[in-house]
Known about the structure:
Helix content: 25-40%
Number of helices: 8
Number of strands: 8
Distance between the termini: 71 Å
Amino acid sequence: MPSKHQRTVYEIAEGRHGYFTAAQAVAAGVPSAHLPDMLRRRVVERISRGVYRLVDFPRAPTAQLMEATLWPASHREDNRGVLSHESALAFHRISDVSPSHVHITVPGGVRIRRAVPRYLRIHRGDLPASDIEWREGIPVTTAARAIRDCHAEHLGPALVRQAIQDGRRLGELTTREAATLTAELLEAPADASGQPISR
Length: 199
């Protein structure tokens, strides 16, 4: 029968694709000394420093995205990353962008004193709560914020336009958001679908 602390870890990880951090476990009352014991018994596996995964939990297609957002928060939950930039566009399924890395944004004050995994790209910025959504247990920037971030990182105008149009078509952007983004980022007034209006 699972111990009380093991059940606690399962409750934490259940909505996070089987992942959890040492900080989350300790905050929930699991003694830090209990995690090495769970490792020895192959209840959990260590993914990176302070990030763990339940061994028996089914691996979801989005598992690496969850791992990426937890990586900065190994010992402090408020250091958690948010899926952003091209990775957020891909997550929202808007545009044909195909990122070669997982992009996350961490708070500006976070200090990272260890090597960043090669698959990860870290951006810094203090995101307002209105720019963050939770999808499938993963924090991700809204479509509008992702488009603005990608534009600021010099994503080509064709992909920006496609992201706006796909966002409107798929309901990730409102009519007003699509028109505002088109005018703001592509310097052209737009109709309700995000298509530019000829002058």
